[in-house]
Design a protein that fits this description.
15 helices, about 0% strand, about 350 residues, mainly alpha
């Protein structure tokens, strides 16, 4: 059985929740932020869990590549037209957030982030830069992946997947090295922008193409068959996820994030989800994109003290999710009305 639309939505939602966990708790300088209750040695357990959560972007990219490749084969010549419409809807949603959280809220709160340069605002408006919110770096990369997807998917259909994965892996290692260890090669701003976004694209391409290849060769079905041959499938899958967390704790460098993320996807799909939890995650999936785009405004930029005020991990996490979802309800309403006025379906 391959990954269904429901599973894709749930996995993307899980990825965004992991992003929130990563950003909230991936620090050992937590004294003035939160109070951990469980420790592994001298470090909080939540630190290791949040460290594993750096697989959030690879998971999102993998599922996106998986779904877009399915659409590419299903929609044929209409794929590019529908893709442009998908991106337009994403941009409209993003523009609403930009206007509310940067254009309006920053002035109400008299925050330094308030735009004083039209050039900077327009560059953010086009998503060429994401200087108002650190989590926006992925927006441009995602757009580039979507735009380049038809070309990439033709390569997947034409060439040997081992060659493609090997070439993408080499590109990933090179991109990771330049991104982390040689991030400022150029003095020129434009060349520096090219390097930054080129390396981010190269790092994200591996899980994206792996998702497309997984859809093409039905990896999820093959993994599911292997698990069905064993008893206690859910226990094995949960144990596998725990092992992934332990491995990442032993190897804290996030160069392994795409690999832990991809394995997590297949393990997670073997775990039966209670119908009530499934309904909740599917409902939450309607707010996943907004949670990604706005959570940093709450926990870092505008309301950091408020978000961390509960002091304990779970209440902090739930408070951030609640703030994001309540805001998302407003954003989605405005977005829906905007699409209706513009007659975009």
């Amino acid at each position: 059985m391959e990954i269904s639309i429901k599973q894709s939505k749930i996995l993307k939602t899980i990825a965004i929740l992991m992003m929130l966990c990563l950003h909230l708790f991936n620090t050992l300088d937590y004294k003035y932020l939160f109070t951990p209750l469980v420790f592994v040695g001298s470090k909080p357990l939540i630190y290791y869990i949040s460290l594993f959560c750096d697989a959030c972007v690879p998971i999102f990219a993998f599922v996106s590549g998986y779904g877009l490749f399915f659409n590419f084969q299903k929609e044929g010549k209409q794929y590019s037209v529908k893709n442009r419409k998908r991106l337009l809807k994403l941009y409209i949603n993003y523009w609403i957030i930009l206007i509310i959280f940067v254009g309006i809220l920053s002035h109400i709160l008299s925050h330094p982030i308030a735009p004083h340069s039209w050039a900077k605002f327009l560059l953010n408006f086009t998503a060429l830069i994401g200087s108002y919110n650190g989590a926006w770096w992925f927006l441009l990369i995602y757009i580039l992946l979507v735009l380049s997807a038809p070309f990439l998917f033709k390569l997947v259909l034409k060439y040997n997947i081992v060659v493609i994965l090997l070439a993408t892996f080499v590109l990933y290692v090179l991109s990771f090295y330049l991104r982390i260890y040689r991030p400022n090669i150029f003095q020129n701003h434009f060349l520096q922008w090219l390097q930054t976004n080129g390396t981010l694209y190269g790092c994200t391409l591996l899980p994206f193409l792996a998702g497309a290849i997984a859809q093409k060769d039905q990896w999820n079905t093959k993994v599911s068959i292997l698990f069905k041959e064993r008893k206690y499938t859910a226990i094995w899958a949960v144990s596998g996820i725990i092992v992934l967390i332990v491995i990442h704790g032993l190897v804290p460098n996030f160069i392994i994030a795409p690999f832990t993320g991809i394995v997590f996807v297949f393990l997670f799909n073997q775990i039966p989800i209670h119908p009530a939890i499934e309904r909740f995650l599917l409902w939450l999936s309607d707010h996943a994109t907004n949670m990604w785009l706005i959570h940093m405004f709450f926990y870092m930029i505008y309301f950091k003290q408020f978000i961390y005020s509960p002091r304990y991990v779970l209440p902090i996490f739930l408070l951030l999710v609640t703030c994001c979802v309540l805001s998302s309800l407003v954003i989605n309403y405005i977005n829906q009305k905007t699409l209706e006025v513009c007659r975009i379906r």
